[in-house]
């Protein structure tokens, strides 16, 4: 592991441990199962950050799913968002389908909103969104996620459990915030 990230995982504030994260994922799964029961849905994992979250969520879903992914990012190696960069679009047809977008974190909601609009433009009948972390922002968000694991007021940069810091830290089992 990158020594800088390892150092940050020890000096950063742990926000949520793995047990708390897994409990929030179980809660999201129960909500999705209740809302989307008896439906066939396409789950779209937003790479790379949502990979770990999606991997833990899928086995808990009791609906019929087809899995796909998009790789789109406003951050890249930066901690500041910019224009959405599409690296890979969906491979499945979304025409006439119900879609569940799974993303790691919703800050301003710009990325999630663009991906939702992308799905609707590709013919999806309905699009739901699930995020592990929904950050409270001071300004209005572009989208409110349908299913949320953790609501977070902390404005520091978050990493761990799939979310990176400078490309590292995705494999950490807990969620951390960088030092002030």
TrEMBL record:
GO terms for cellular component: cytosol. InterPro entries: HGPRT, PRTase-like, PRTase_dom. This is Putative hypoxanthine phosphoribosyltransferase. GO terms for biological process: GMP salvage; guanine salvage; hypoxanthine metabolic process; IMP salvage. Residues 13-164 form the Phosphoribosyltransferase domain. Signal peptide: none annotated. One of its GO terms (molecular function) is hypoxanthine phosphoribosyltransferase activity. Gene3D superfamilies: 3.40.50.2020. NCBIfam families: PRK09162.1. Coiled coil: none annotated. Pfam families: Pribosyltran. SUPFAM superfamilies: PRTase-like. Keywords: Glycosyltransferase, Transferase. The keyword GTP-binding does not apply. It catalyses: IMP + diphosphate = hypoxanthine + 5-phospho-alpha-D-ribose 1-diphosphate; GMP + diphosphate = guanine + 5-phospho-alpha-D-ribose 1-diphosphate.
